[in-house]
Amino acid sequence: MGSLWLQGLGKTVTTIALILTAPAPNMVDADRSLAAKDPWEKGALRGGTLIVVPTSVLHQWHQELKDKVATFAGLRTHVYHGKSKAWTGQELARYGVVLTTYAIMGLEAPPPRPCPLFEVDWHRVILDEAQSIKNAHTLASHASRCLQTSRRWCLTGTPIQNTVDDLYSYFRFLRYEPYSRQAAFKSMLKEPLQSNPKHGSKLLRAALQGVLLRRTKGSTLNGEPIVELPARQVEVVRLHFSAGERAAYDELQRSSMSQLKEHAVIHRGAKTSYMNMLLLLLRLRQACNHPWDDEVSAIDASLRDSLLIRLEQPDSSLCGICGDVAEEPAMTPCAHSFCRQCLTTQVQNHAGEQSYKCPTCSATIKDAQVIVFSQWTRMLDLIQSALQANHIRFSRLDGTLGVSARSHAVAQFNANKGTNVLLVSLKAASLGLNLTAASYVVLMDLWWNPSVEEQAIDRAHRIGQTRTVRVMRLTIADTVEDRILALQEKKRKLAEAALGDGDGGVQASRLTMEDLQYLFSAS
């Protein structure tokens, strides 16, 4: 069964309720209480429920089970990860719930030898954030279909992230005939979508209806909303480069276009052209974040030097306080330029405050909890430096942290004891986390797929939130980011067509060559 519930609508709690109301038979005594019984039954090793989750939410799931399940229920839970991984299948089968990660499952997948997770015939297997197996060629996807169970669940808020091929991995795990066979999936769903998108979308919706339980924030039951959440206000904040920043960006864009033309002449292979365009596009996107980003500056030393010379010209930037050409330019840690005298006066006027903030950045809300997302850890480094310079306490969550360090960062932020900002890597923490302590979400850069951004926003806008959530999507005007916004809207049609929200055809969400050419076109 596939469960498509948008983020923050209670997938975890509903799953726990399912486990308690329909436990494994070998876990139940005559009085219906849960107990650790002999796992062997008719020669098979019978287990409870296996839940596979992203690493970032492993401890959160464990904590939810502790908080939501009463002690007298007798539900025994084990986290199969790290040092506790050295268990046998027979030991795992004695637990009502076993939690593990996609990484562990992938590493232990057979062959060459059976591992504990694959020795047990589980009563139920649940894949949380099931889009983690969307690529049918990954270890995690291969491993998931090797698990032994007769009850299979996929939990996700974003079933289609790239192309309709994502669904094949789910159907294969669910053993949903005939679509679990690649040839049938291709002939019955994929090819009709390509030849006649409107008709193909109807076939796809019909196939999904057999296995899909869908809930959105607008879903109702008996005429009443299934959940009432505070408002969510999303604002696209269009910022503008200073004169010096604009010069740097335009120079980089001209250089990128020149490289593209040269590459097109030398390499006529479509694949190499595609990869080269992706690389140059990455550079432009990073330049929108920060023109002095090391990753951008390292592209070409001669280009970097010419930009620095241009930035030193007297008319390269305007003062953020008086609006005139900056005299004796001074720069704050967050890279905003001012007249030295204007900045000195501003600091003196705020001398009695605990810390001084850059005038351009001072629009942040006092005493609010803010989540700041970026795709690049280097950008988080730059923001971190600005926060430290302004004595603003923060936590950080990115892919470099281990499981315990991630849990500590989240707990520190949610405790709301002076840590006002959580810096988050978009890919490391856009899944599963509960961050309802925050009422502000800032997206520093745009991602191709709008569903990834939606997941990030719903870390705060979910069950348990009591305040309006304000979202700021920061973009730089007259850059590639304008075109990314337009491209995102096109890509929403993919999920809408498949899930019944629209009548358009399903198109690939992967960046096509046409997409890339559009993104490189003039604003």
UniProtKB/TrEMBL annotation:
Family assignment from sequence similarity: Belongs to the SNF2/RAD54 helicase family. RAD16 subfamily.
All residue ranges annotated as the Helicase C-terminal domain in the record: 360-517
Pfam name, any one: SNF2-rel_dom
RING-type domain residues: 319-362
This protein's name: SNF2_N-domain-containing protein
Ranges of residues in domain Helicase ATP-binding: 8-177
GO cellular component: nucleus
CDD domains assigned: DEXDc_SHPRH-like, SF2_C_SNF
Parts forming coiled coils: none
Heme as UniProt keyword: no
InterPro entries: Helicase_ATP-bd, Helicase_C-like, P-loop_NTPase, SNF2-like_sf, SNF2/RAD54-like_C, SNF2_N, SNF2_RAD54_helicase_TF, Znf-RING_euk
GO molecular function, one term: zinc ion binding
Signal peptide bounds: 1-30
Keywords in alphabetical order: ATP-binding, Hydrolase, Metal-binding, Nucleotide-binding, Signal, Zinc, Zinc-finger
GO biological process: DNA repair
